[in-house]
Amino acid sequence: MKLLIKRGLAIVLCLAMALSLAACASDSTPAGADEPEQPKDLGVIRLAMPPEGHIFNVIAETQGYLADEGVTVEAVPVANDAEVFAGIANGTIDVASTSGTNLPLQYISESWDLTVFGGYMLTGCMPIIAKVDRPWTGLEDLIGATVACEPNVYALTGPLLDLGHDPRTEITWLQPKDQAERIAMVSRGEADFALVGTPLNYQVISDPDIKVITYASDILPQYSCCRVEAPTEWIRENPELVKGLLKAWIRAMAYYDTHHDETVALVMEMTGKDEAFVRAYMDNPHFELNIDPMKKSVIRAWDYMDRLGLLDEDGERISIGDHINVNIYKEALDECQAQYGSENPKFYERLQVQFSQNDL
Questions:
Q1: What percent of the chain has pLDDT over 90?
Q2: Are 249 and 159 in contact (CB under 8 A)?
Q3: What is the pTM (predicted TM-score) of this model?
Q4: Which domains does the chain have, with CATH numbers?
């Protein structure tokens, strides 16, 4: 009897152990199988977001590239560049990307420790306009004229320096705060010429009294319209997060390269503008977006601003090359090419050539 009881207990224990092992096996990865890949979470980037939005970021978000790279972008609405740099100063903004090149360089010359690490617009669709009956023979037509624009727009004034002119004294500058007023000044005959920003293209082509005589990018190719910058310490503390953002934006640029009409639709939704307004600049070949930091173009801009007397006197002690980081971008580009290059080989080859020509 005792033997039967012992045998019964042994059977019960064996069954319990078998059930326990089966339960453990159902909750674990089978031997030899790969562990499931955990989604990356590199952190949050607070990005200054103007009313016209950010084309690469909206693509990266809607296509899932930011999520793939483990990056969360928190858009911080800003109405103007003053709010952008106030946000950087008080720590509520990490990254700026749509505030030109001259402004971040100006702040760097004033001892702000900012670093350029990427790009957004390489050349904006920035038209130089005049009345329809005004002749135009070239850049030197600006000499002796009245121009509605700031003299710190080195895309105009820098090449005039190279031609031996002093555009600060040889041109009369009118500087209304509202760029739409620049168009009105030309239309009223108060200014001979004006330069306006990319979002004003629809207004320009809709005015029968105005004509586009040339574009800023015709005068200074690859002039570096908008660079991407952040506090140097923040970049130093978050290199993987920065690389993740650049990878998502590089992939967005590749999408933009082959999905123009789809991107137009995204921008319409993002900005609330109609198709005619958006295509007035997005369909223009002078509108060129590019992620590359374009180190040589930034150094050229710094040199022009120095020669124009636009940098703070402390800028004389600053080497602008110390405020341009091309290494994180190159890592991001190499990784994107390795992971996604087969989707658009010529695109990634083009970016690698551009880097070798402009950042080394």
A1: 86
A2: no
A3: 0.87
A4: 43-122+225-358 (3.40.190.10), 127-219 (3.40.190.10)
